[in-house]
Design goal:
By secondary structure, this protein is mainly α. It has one helix and no strands. It is rod-shaped.
């Protein structure tokens, strides 16, 4: 009877050991799968970080270009304003000369 109980306990423990080994194998497989997924996610994060960095650089370059273009347009606008002011002075000067000439003609006509 003692031998039979011992055999039953050994059988029971052997089954528990087998079940534990199966669970351990499943856990190891899950860990391997999780490691693979983690590696894949790390690569995706690295790729997205690189893309974000490239995008940031593009934005910075475009911002610099826009700033240069803005400066260029401001300079052109200032040049045009100066040209218009100069032409206005010329027109005013010529208008004055024409007025003086008309005055002289009127004066000479009266004489």
């Amino acid at each position: 009877l003692i031998i039979k109980e011992a055999k039953d306990k050994i059988a029971k423990l052997t089954k528990q050991e087998t079940d534990l080994r199966k669970e351990m194998a499943i856990s190891m497989d899950s860990m391997t799968e999780i490691k693979g997924e983690t590696r894949s996610l790390a690569e995706q994060v690295k790729s997205l970080t690189e893309q974000a960095k490239n995008y940031q650089n593009q934005v910075a370059r475009k911002s610099d270009k826009a700033s240069l273009m803005q400066d260029e347009y401001i300079t052109k606008l200032k040049t045009l304003e100066d040209q218009i002011a100069s032409q206005n002075q010329d027109v005013n000067s010529k208008s004055l000369i024409i007025k003086e000439a008309k005055d002289k003609i009127a004066k000479l006509t009266k004489q």
